[in-house]
């Protein structure tokens, strides 16, 4: 025991087990790595159990997996009410108020979380075809997660949220609009007082990559699932070369809006995303690099 | 003989898929610690029989049910789930009753009937699973609206209006629940569940609280009531509602749903 580091959750794990008891990743498979270095996160095996505290969570299903918790006395988790699929009548559910209610409402984030306390069982699921991604966090370890991807966390994981700092504006005067291609806020989770478990729901498939110091990468902003807090990010705007046959505004209507990630650290992307749809000229933006072809 | 764990039909030794519902016979049931059983994941191109007809299931992400109808057989369905058909397969319409009330409730008051011989195929528009429910004579099954894919003509189709203002406003299941009943003959009912489908059998008096959007089907013996939880869901919202299911009987849920209080 403890001689094997799980390549997916980066925690000491049990090599004799079929699945990592902390994150559910299969132990007995070869890593699937694309030529460019993206590591495919293997889906958690159907009915695999993950241990935390005296409790465990079992993952059921593969299309839209359900996380079924068996909570021991004194263990608790928190989640947004809209992911609750079922609960036993005896499981204690209470509200967990969030700070900054007005800003959260403006950003479309849940205003109130629900705490589920043991003993008892409850189950959570999201409403996209995809994967549950389990991130066990050691004491003081932090991770940044894109908004709306959080499924649940154990009670000893702190949750805070901060502006992403990635934005641009289009139009002018009364028509001016500020857009946030990866959401206005991002979530930061950190374990305190011991290890904890964070579960995300990733639409589509999930791929991870470890960036070297100062290594950069361009991705669709809404494809980012999570990143180490050591990874920095900013906008990158790319304009195609005008070939002479397009309209006068083609240089911005066919532009690409990227998120540039700077290592060191781990980043994860989901394969379902929503690219920015607007085609108006950008009038101002957060720090960005630009390339005109 | 091998008994299918899903529909309990008997199969010849050596068969790998149930001839009555298509469930794999050579795989163990997947049951979670709390007793939810995954609906069997039908193998691509698996085939099963009902009456004199056959049904083949194609695809795994959004499965298609392709039915080869015997000349004496027929099936009915909501017209928008029809994917393709042989030109020769005749279609007719059947009034379900309810008229304007059904229309107001967003439910069709006419279902389409296809009669054999010929081939016809059905699918819905979301990733999920086909749930094959062979119905023995005397069974009554309630299904959430718009989850029904196709049923054989020996199954009687009706609907029950959800009673009680609290259930109607907060139950999250709309105004109606479809009811399928078999009288003297067995029948076949196919549902489409979004995401994964899980089933559990409740003992008499046993209760479970389910997100109403996740409810897929239940035996008619299972009672369903909206239950208010002591939880706020927003700054001005009080009282989240869940569907309280009380046994005895089976209940099926789907893991992908639109939350009934979603903005």
Structure description:
The complex is a heterodimer of chains A (293) and B (263). Chain A contains two helices and 27 strands. The model of chain A has no long low-confidence stretch (mean pLDDT 89). Chain A starts with a strand and ends with a strand. Chain A is mainly β and 293 residues long. In chain B, 5% of the residues lie in helices and 48% in strands. In chain B, strands 3-18-23-20-13-16-15 form a seven-stranded antiparallel β-sheet, with no helix packed on it. The interface between A and B is large, with 37 and 39 residues.
Structure characteristics:
heterodimer, A: mainly beta, seven-stranded antiparallel sheet, 3% helix, globular, B: 263 residues, mainly beta
Number of helical regions of chain A? 2
β-strand percent of chain B reads over 45%
Order of helices and strands of chain A, N to C?
EEEEEEEEEHEEEEEEEEEEEEEEHEEEE
Largest sheet data of chain A: 7 strands, antiparallel
State the helical fraction of chain B: under 10%
Q: What are the segments of chain B in which pLDDT stays under 50 over at least 5 consecutive residues?
A: none
Total beta-strand segments of chain A? 27
Structural class of chain A: mainly beta
Give the low-confidence spans of chain A: none
Termini gap of chain B: 52 Å
Strand order of the largest sheet of chain B: 3-18-23-20-13-16-15
Following the backbone from N to C, one meets helices and strands of chain B in this order, namely EEEEEEEEEHEEEEEEHEEEEEEEE
Strand order, largest beta sheet of chain A: 3-20-25-22-13-18-15
Q: With helices defined by DSSP (H or I, 4 residues minimum), what is the helix count of chain B?
A: 2
Q: Describe the global form of chain B.
A: globular
Oligomer: heterodimer
């Amino acid at each position: 025991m403890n001689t094997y580091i799980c390549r997916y959750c980066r925690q000491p794990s049990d090599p004799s087990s079929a699945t990592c008891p902390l994150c559910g990743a299969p132990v007995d498979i070869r890593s699937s790595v694309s030529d460019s270095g993206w590591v495919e996160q293997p889906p958690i095996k159907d009915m695999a159990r993950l241990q935390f505290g005296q409790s465990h969570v079992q993952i059921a299903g593969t299309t839209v997996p359900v996380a079924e918790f068996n909570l021991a006395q004194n263990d608790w988790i928190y989640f947004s009410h809209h992911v609750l699929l079922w609960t036993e009548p005896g499981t204690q559910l209470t509200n967990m108020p969030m700070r900054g209610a007005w800003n959260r409402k403006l950003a479309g984030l849940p205003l109130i979380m629900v705490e589920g306390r043991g003993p008892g069982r409850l189950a959570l699921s999201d409403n996209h075809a995809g994967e549950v991604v389990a991130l066990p966090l050691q004491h003081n370890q932090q991770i940044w997660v894109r908004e709306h991807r959080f499924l649940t966390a154990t009670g000893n994981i702190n949750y805070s949220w901060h502006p992403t700092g990635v934005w641009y504006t289009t139009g002018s005067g009364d028509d001016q609009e500020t857009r946030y291609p990866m959401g206005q806020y991002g979530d930061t989770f950190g374990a305190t007082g011991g290890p904890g478990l964070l579960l995300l729901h990733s639409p589509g498939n999930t791929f991870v990559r470890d960036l070297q110091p100062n290594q950069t990468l361009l991705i669709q902003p809404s494809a980012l699932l999570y990143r180490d807090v050591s990874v920095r990010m900013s906008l990158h705007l790319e304009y195609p070369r005008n070939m002479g046959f397009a309209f006068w505004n083609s240089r911005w209507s066919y532009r690409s809006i990227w998120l540039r990630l700077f290592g060191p650290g781990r980043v994860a992307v989901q394969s379902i995303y929503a690219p920015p749809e607007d085609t108006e000229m950008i009038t101002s933006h957060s720090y960005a690099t630009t390339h005109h072809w | 003989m091998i008994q299918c764990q899903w529909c309990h039909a008997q199969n010849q030794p050596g068969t790998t898929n149930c001839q009555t519902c298509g469930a794999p016979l050579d795989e163990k049931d997947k049951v979670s610690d709390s007793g939810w059983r995954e609906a069997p994941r039908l193998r691509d191109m698996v085939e099963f029989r009902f009456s004199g007809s056959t049904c083949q299931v194609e695809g795994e992400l959004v499965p298609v049910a392709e039915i080869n109808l015997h000349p004496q057989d027929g099936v009915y369905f909501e017209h928008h789930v029809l994917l393709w058909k042989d030109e020769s397969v005749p279609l007719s319409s059947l009034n379900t009753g309810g008229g304007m009330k059904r229309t107001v409730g967003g439910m069709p008051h006419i279902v389409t009937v296809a009669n054999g011989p010929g081939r016809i195929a059905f699918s819905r528009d979301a990733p999920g699973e086909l749930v094959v429910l062979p119905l023995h004579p005397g069974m009554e099954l309630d299904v959430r609206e718009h989850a029904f894919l196709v049923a054989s003509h020996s199954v009687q189709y009706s609907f029950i209006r959800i009673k009680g203002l609290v259930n109607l406003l907060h139950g999250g299941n709309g105004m109606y629940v479809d009811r399928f009943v078999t009288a003297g003959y067995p029948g076949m009912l196919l549902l489409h569940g979004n995401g994964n489908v899980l089933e559990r059998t409740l003992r008499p008096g046993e209760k479970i609280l389910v997100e109403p959007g996740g409810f897929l089907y239940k035996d008619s013996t299972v009672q369903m009531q909206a239950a208010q939880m002591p939880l706020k869901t927003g700054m001005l919202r009080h009282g989240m509602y869940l569907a309280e299911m009380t046994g005895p009987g089976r209940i099926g849920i789907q893991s992908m749903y639109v939350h009934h209080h979603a903005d």
